[in-house]
Amino acid sequence: MEIILAKSAGFCFGVDRALKKVYDGLGNEPIYTYGPIIHNTQVVEELASKGVKVIHDLSELGHLPHGKVVIRSHGISKNEQDLISSSGFGMIEATCPYVKTIHKCVEKASKKGHHIIIVGNKNHPEVTGIKGWCQQPVYIIEDITQIDEIPFDSNIVYEVVAQTTFNLGLYQEILIRLQKLNFHVIINETICKATQERQKEALEIAKNVDVMLVIGSKHSSNTIKLYEICKEQCEHTYHIESIEEFELKVLNGHSVIGITAGASTPKKLIKEVISNVRNAE
Ligand code: F3S
């Protein structure tokens, strides 16, 4: 059996950096992460064993001992940032610099009076964070049909940004459609290069394998997108969180197995999958 592992599988720069900041911050003061630092239970549990607590609402700070709040790589809204600053708690800013660039972009565009189109999942924390830096009307869309919900007005300039992990091909289709409909758009290339490379590599691998395994949390949007991209190319594509949930017998009769993983998947999980797949031969 041949295994083709994507070079880009596993932690991206932003996730790696955020995790490092949490470990560097460990000391005498309590550390709170605003939401789980990454979509991986094992890592979150390991941090919990070192005293790092996950909070889900900033109102919790009112009854917690003073410490530092970690802003994870997804980033947060301006309101939330102001709330933390005024709470008396310290802040460990681990927003991915690529996400921070989008915050600055929409903030600047708002000052010019431009309306904002965010192409991404409206419930994703990165997108709600970006929305929170806009001071003009915002439209959040994730497919071509939702363009109909954006009011057309030739006097309005729309500044378009994409969630960093959005599917590049679909973003391009949406941009072409907006231009065809004569929307006055300013396009910003905000899809993270790491995501683009990961998606491109996954697509190429999926085209040439019998079975494709995509490792990562079921809550991780970049992993879900990888799965969707691979599934289009390879019928036998499986999204698994770890090897425990995968029936190795599925591999019977197949000779080329592709493996990729989302940006918050630890190397350890990827290695476990590889060694189990190898042993299944
Ligand atoms: Fe940042 Fe890209 Fe990762 S935006 S968090 S490096 S997927």
UniProtKB/TrEMBL annotation:
GO-annotated biological processes: dimethylallyl diphosphate biosynthetic process; isopentenyl diphosphate biosynthetic process, methylerythritol 4-phosphate pathway; terpenoid biosynthetic process
Keyword Transcription applies: no
Gene3D superfamilies according to UniProt: 3.40.50.11270, 4-hydroxy-3-methylbut-2-enyl diphosphate reductase, catalytic domain
Binding site for (2E)-4-hydroxy-3-methylbut-2-enyl diphosphate: H39, H74, H124, T164, S220, S221, N222, S264
Coiled-coil parts of chain: none
Active site: E126 (proton donor)
Purpose: Catalyzes the conversion of 1-hydroxy-2-methyl-2-(E)-butenyl 4-diphosphate (HMBPP) into a mixture of isopentenyl diphosphate (IPP) and dimethylallyl diphosphate (DMAPP). Acts in the terminal step of the DOXP/MEP pathway for isoprenoid precursor biosynthesis.
Name under which the protein is recorded: 4-hydroxy-3-methylbut-2-enyl diphosphate reductase
Name of encoding gene: ispH
